[in-house]
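Reviewer 2 asked us to include a model.

Predict the structure of this chain.
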Amino acid sequence: MKYLFPKLIFIFSFFILTGCKKTETVEVAKSESAKNSIEFASGLSIVKYDGYSVVTVMEPWPNANKNFKYILKEKDAKVPDSLATYTTIKVPLESIVVTSTTNVPFLEMLEVENKLVGFPHTDYVSSEKTRVLIDKGSVKNVGQNEKLNIEQLIELAPDLIVTFGVDNNNPMLDNLKKSGLNVFIQADWMEQSPLGKAEWIKLYGALFGKEEKAKELFDKIVESYNQAKKLVADKPASATVLYGSMYEDVWYVAKGNSWVAQFMKDAHANYLWSDLKGTGSEGLSFEKILVKAKTADFWIASGSFKSLDEIAKTNPHYGQFDAFKNKNVYTFEGKFGATGGTVYYELAPSRPDLVLKDYIKIFHPDLLPSYEFTFASKLN
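Predicted model (structure tokens):
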């Protein structure tokens, strides 16, 4: 079991970090004017009515055979009988358990991190602010994602557990529900749009009665992201880029419609696999990578490497790439919290504007001369 969790981290790093807007309609009498407040996220819909909101999560995992609908009910609100079959959650929440580090920044941005009472494998949380709560015992370690401690969760009795599924067979989710715990299935990790991932802050705004604050924060991120795009608007996408690294015997590259590929496109770089259709990643042989990317100008390596020597020791063939020879190798995964949590995995989905600025700094350093990397590190 102890080896399963690191593998899940690796798999999710590609879903989360590499990668159908649907119109959600709700049959509620006398509420035809209510609209979905979500603009960029493809897997989330929030429709607010008088005293309650209808939240729908679409495509919660790859090839999902169902969506999830939730009713967020304010105190003394009257919810139509037509919505009685859906899970009802009383809001604003007073306590919550989340199971992904990507959720932690949303809580902190909304200043409700003190409502967090449990998290699986707390060592993976990198935020100093939440680590203080963990260290003083306010946030309990509730096991691991694939095996949550249900007895402890029952004792904590959180208002809500926000978790995720990986496929259509999720026995842990079924066990949580059978235990009488309130469970919310979210799908921020399935989003491929940088702004789409970040927009899930609006879910937490709805859960904690801070919708206006969430919108204000998200609008600032959108503005910052678009301002960064304007910086490179007139710059040619001439820099060729290799992405990824070997995992066992396979090199995983981000597909052309993935989260990572979108960042490189918006930073005006020539990502060599931008024409590979689809989201997420694809495994290729080292030979295929070398043929296409031997002369690439830059290499964005996946992995927590600290130096060129360290990366060379993992595979001596890396030295064949021009980007390695010219010392143009970067990683976004080399910065950690006090107990080993990766800062990029935790914070990047909620701050795509900072990720984009890092990429622009790499490919067009003259445009951001005084900017310091938030996530990226150059390997020397």
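The chain has a mean pLDDT of 92. The CA atoms of residues 115 and 154 lie 16 Å apart. We have added this to the supplementary material.
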